[in-house]
């Protein structure tokens, strides 16, 4: 029963069942002209953001803007017409946070994820994993295993909002984590891994058997700038806004820097080091449902994300505090010294005006 439900989750997420995906066909030879200098910095900013889908608390975090190009044919002439994707990131020493912002007219079709916007983050796990072909393992659906595709693992977080209420938190939850996989039966914010487009599974699910130690470590929420309420929605408020309203979609996520994964299915972040990632966006252009491989991407190769250390900022602040304290102490000593000098000078001057009286005259 569990395997059947996992099958349905994968089917809903990507528009096709696990196994050969006929829609994932490139139009010709792969060609990529990536920007080698583009990087995303996740600065150390503890206590800055609340995970609720709202972008207000991200206003002081620098955003990196990307054109959205078709993933299978990254031609600039075919880029997403709604606008760019802005990616922001930060960490608090324990969790890493991402904010994806994409301009787009508001569309929502309850229960039909393919007619709603959707986003994904993909990270390199294995040293040989390529951005192209979702890891790039050459094995087929019948032969891809953790052994035959070792080193080609990619970690994927996919959020399909067709059943997700704006502003509510989805992702890892006690019900699905108890089953030991990366699913999310409530909002379809799922944790997956892949070796290539045809060999992808929820964390903990594999062709050779399942492992109950897996978890969905991601959490996230979404919002649209056209919404007129900030007090919170419930399911009965669907569709939550007016179709066609101009605005911006916000997708906010968090995950621990390190997880308890022992299956080579999660990326492990480290402070002061870089990881490789990409971001994808699905949108029902002209109202037409999107399909699994019909997504836009922020580029045609990996983009480094730097998990910046907080020591430099703390050291600077500590150094500034020490300097201020030393300066104040020095100033105080100077004032005391001046006062003492003035007092001694006055005492000496007054002492000279007292007439000398020999002892024998007393």
From TrEMBL:
Pfam families: EB_dh. This is Cytochrome c-552/DMSO reductase-like haem-binding domain-containing protein. CDD domains: DOMON_like. InterPro entries: Cyt-c552/DMSO_Rdtase_haem-bd (IPR019020). Residues 1-23 form the signal peptide. Residues 55-297 form the Cytochrome c-552/DMSO reductase-like haem-binding domain. The chain crosses the membrane at residues 328-348. GO terms for molecular function: heme binding; metal ion binding. It comes from the Eukaryota. Keywords: Electron transport, Heme, Iron, Membrane, Metal-binding, Signal, Transmembrane, Transmembrane helix, Transport.
């Amino acid at each position: 029963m569990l395997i059947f439900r996992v099958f349905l989750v994968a089917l809903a997420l990507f528009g096709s069942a696990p196994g050969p995906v006929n829609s994932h066909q490139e139009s010709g030879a792969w060609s990529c002209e990536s920007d080698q200098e583009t990087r995303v910095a996740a600065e150390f900013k503890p206590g800055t953001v609340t995970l609720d889908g709202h972008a207000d608390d991200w206003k002081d975090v620098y955003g990196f803007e990307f054109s959205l190009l078709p993933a299978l044919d990254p031609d600039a002439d075919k880029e997403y017409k709604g606008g760019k994707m802005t990616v922001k990131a930060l960490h608090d020493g324990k969790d890493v946070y991402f904010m994806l912002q994409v301009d787009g007219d508001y569309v929502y079709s309850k229960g039909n994820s393919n007619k709603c916007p959707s986003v994904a983050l993909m990270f390199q796990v294995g040293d040989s994993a390529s951005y192209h072909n979702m890891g790039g393992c050459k094995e087929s659906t019948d032969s891809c295993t953790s052994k035959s595709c070792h080193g080609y693992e990619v970690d994927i977080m996919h959020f399909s909002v067709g059943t997700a209420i704006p502003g509510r938190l989805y992702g890892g939850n006690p019900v699905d984590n108890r089953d030991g996989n990366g699913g999310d039966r409530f909002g379809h914010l799922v944790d997956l891994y892949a070796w290539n487009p045809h060999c992808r599974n929820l964390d903990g699910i594999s062709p050779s058997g399942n492992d109950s130690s897996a978890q969905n470590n991601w959490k996230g929420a979404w919002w649209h700038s056209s919404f007129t309420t900030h007090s919170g929605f419930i399911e009965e408020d669907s569709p939550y806004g007016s179709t066609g309203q101009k605005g911006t979609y916000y997708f906010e996520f968090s995950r621990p820097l390190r997880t308890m994964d022992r299956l080579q299915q999660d990326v492990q972040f480290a402070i002061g080091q870089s990881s490789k990632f990409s971001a994808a966006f699905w949108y029902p252009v002209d109202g037409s449902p999107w399909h699994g491989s019909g997504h836009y991407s922020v580029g045609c190769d990996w983009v480094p994300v730097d998990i910046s250390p907080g020591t430099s900022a703390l050291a600077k602040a500590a150094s500034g505090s020490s300097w201020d304290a030393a300066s104040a102490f020095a100033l105080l000593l100077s004032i005391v010294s001046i006062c003492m000098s003035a007092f001694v000078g006055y005492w000496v001057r007054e002492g000279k005006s007292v007439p000398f009286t020999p002892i024998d005259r007393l």
